[in-house]
Structures
1.
Amino acid sequence: MSIFEFLGLDKKPPPASEADTQTVRKITAALDRLEPDRARYIAGFAYILSRVSHADLNIGPEEIRAMESLIVERGGLPEAQAVLVVQMAKTQSLLFGGTENFLVTRQFSKIASRDEKLALLDCLFAVSSADQSISVVEDNEIRQIASELRLEHADFIAARSRYRQHLSVLQKQKPGVRSQDTE
């Protein structure tokens, strides 16, 4: 057995389009029992959820649980598989976020319908509000994602308004406490 076989590096990647990024390929490989197009969709969906979760440089346990729940609900995956997908998406986002964010979102935009993009937008706000507060950084990241998905500003505002009670910029500050968003 060669070192490449031992490390699993000699395996051929699953059939993928040229537009696939390394991140999507890695998550898609974990979903090999699904149709390739469905696996790519779920991989992109999960990665974009982790992108907004990581925007404030802190992926909390509430956000992880929200992502897992959304992958089960929207992706139709069993919980164990959803946990794996979220973990992989989270790791990829942490490692390659700076270079992969736009590429994965652009690819998702090409394969998703308008309704699927709007559903993702709502899910982004759900994940970022899982800890009861949407930071300015998370809000800005969602705005950027909506733009990359080629959604209208009105779509962003409509989704955002459903979560306005969680917007940190609108929450009352306790006297003497500085918000991390204003520092």
2.
Amino acid sequence: MRPRSAIPLGIFATGAATTAYAAVVERTRWTLRRFEVPVLPPGARPLTILHISDLHMTAGQRGKQRWVRRLDRLEPDLVISTGDHIAAQDAVAPTLAALGPLLDRPGAFIFGSNDYYEPRPRNPFRYFFKRRKKKLPTTMLPWETLRDAMVDTGWLDLNNALGKLQVDGRHIALAGVDDPHINRDRHQKVAGPADPEADLRIALTHSPEPRVLDRFTGDGYELIMAGHTHGGQLRVPFYGALVTNCGIDRARVRWLSRWQDSWLHVSAGLGTSPYAPIRFACPPEATLLTLVPRD
């Protein structure tokens, strides 16, 4: 007869093994995704965009820093970062070193809440309650130092701002908002029809909140890029993300999808909070988007 403790011990062992895999293996299984996005005018030559998000960098994450630096070998035409770059007071220099050669390419960025505020321990089960009260940390991170350094390289700061870039001979109109997850977005500062003379119109938001996506779609941006969700961070095979940590539905919590008349790409991101260092069925990732002509 099987001892009564056998089943509970088996469950415990399985849970421990899963947690170890999520914390040690999956969390550092750096992955490059590739998608084609049909948004260019008919007959246009392809354009590549490297989308990075949610680095949540700390000084000791040397493996992540090396992997991000090697992304320059993809030779993207444009680099977009959708926020949450740093996770510690001493992370600015390592983050800039990791981005390194990418900062020499045309680029644009926005910030997320963890660019402004130092992360703190939180109960993970709070994410399952939609009506939870948000309480921001009080310890600020050196976001101004990070912003100034990125701007000095030529990257556009699109936090509640409009911008334009000439990339591979194409005129790209851009708009961005600061993080809607902590109510820093000010769409009124960028509102209005996207430049009709541009070859391509791109909008950025850290958190893919439906109210922001609706406004950008209404303004005529063909491609909207976001991060924040970590792809769910913990996913169940054949079910998907357990939570999205924002207003978007689970089906659009990562990768490429349609949002009304726009294409939406939500990056699953490259990091985690230092206080929740696990990912399951959702490896850390960056994305190379190849923009091609519309059908």
3.
Amino acid sequence: MKLSIITINLNNLAGLKKTFDSVISQTDNDFEYLIIDGGSTDGSYEFIEKNSEKINYWVSESDHGIYHAMNKGIKQASGEYCFFLNSGDYLVNDQVIKKVFRQNLGEDIIFGNLLVFFDGKFKGKSNGKPTLTFLDVYSSIPKHQSSFIKRELFHRFGFYNEDLKIVADWEFFLKTIGFGEVSYKYLELDISCFDNDGISNNSGNLTIDERNSVIDRYVPAMMRPDYEVMMNYGKYEVLTKNRITMFFLRLMTKCLSVLQSMSKRK
């Protein structure tokens, strides 16, 4: 099995239906579909049960949050790649899976573009990039809703951090692409749509606090002041156009990767 599509849901029946329809309508159905429901009481359970013949695995029970539910899905998955399309998110059309996997790719992480909506209205596109820097990953490229992740990476680098409420997927990309130097491939392809009204977009202070806690965990204390200077240097566009700044960002990323490798050998 090449792909496991995992949907988590909690009391979002309308979003679940939209996600479900986009998955089962794919013209390439060489994948398994898993739904992890958090014990919904809004009719989601009944909807899942009614459509259970189209779902390879499902469960409806209380959990400890978004990333606990996503980890539960990973542990039940059997595909080479995992793809997280949570309730309310949906694939842009019925050809997405076919277009991605007909290319016979083997990179650790494959990602494309994400269309962003707010209250059903299109607000813009989050584009990927063929070559990523540390700053790209820090700025949330790629997005988990448009990324296909080799399942073995979760066993190599660890599952999503369940102590985090919002940014554990961002932390995972930081560990793998940012510091782990895993292989990746950008496809110039619109993958999915995301309605920008979830927890991560209504909890600004918590997001900042969690991101800072992750950086504290991975950036050594001696390097933190230099890191802060670069992060506060200016807007993302300014940083990426400044060759000196980009050189030091790449150098810092390499140094952090080496430090992590050394710590693992001890």
4.
Amino acid sequence: MDAPRTIWQISGGPSSRSFARLFLDHGVGLLGPGGVGRWTPERKDDDYAGGYVRRFASEVRPGDVILLRKGQSKICAVGLVASEYLFFDQFDDVNGWDLQHGRRVHWCELPQDYDFGNSAFGANPPRLSRINNRMVVDYAERFVSNPPTHWQTAPLPPLPASEPKLGDEEIPGFLQDIIAQARDMWPLMWDRTKYPEHPTEDELIVHFVVPVLRALGWHPEQIAIKWRFIDVTVFKALPRTPENSAFVIEVKRLGAGVEGALPQGKRYVEALGVPRDVLVTDGIRYRVYDCATGHEPAAYANLINLKKSALCLFTRIKRP
């Protein structure tokens, strides 16, 4: 008789920085932090901010069931683990997370989120955990035992290619100082002994957003702070009118998730009454959304993890 499958849950990220879609699109389950490198039995749990990576790498088995969790009590997919532990270089920047520890997974996306109730995964669900809740275990076992089951053996979707990094010698000279500052300040701002409180959005504007704009050639009179309640508005000419605006910037708290800032940026544009690109940022990560495509994402840059594609963003928002 086959041994019963182990049931696990894995987080799809907070709502403001969800990476669940990436799991489903590429047939993976991912955990971080990955910046310290591949897990091996000799590595200490402290290297990975706890034992989650060790459990994911050494205790999860191919054929185990894994639930893709959203929030405290919901799941959006049921999966079967399809590989041993793998280290994926290409997932070193997933909405700002370094999630290189992975497994291939056959996912079956649910037509709508399934809610088990408030206590199913605990009051503060961890990134990864074994499920012992009988209600959840029964659901998972029934799901994988009943048709349709074709998803369990379907070909896994392709993985994205690793994106080449931008070497220090390739960083444009006008950006080198702000990149160096970001690399220096990033660990300090996350050190709660040195920064007991997160830096405010206004502080991020002062230390990062405006210096980036100035490095890209914009003059002080072209950079408006809190003009018409917009965090930052960049003007291609004076006077400062909606028609003369170049793009608007919505700034979020460090680590809050810039992807969740687009709706606010779009509201700024609607209030202006003219189509404009939206740039969202937490000072370190920058993503621009193109008004010509209904504000689809167009370019991205992470100042502390620069890829060659980041040059597209700098070129796009550079002063003509």
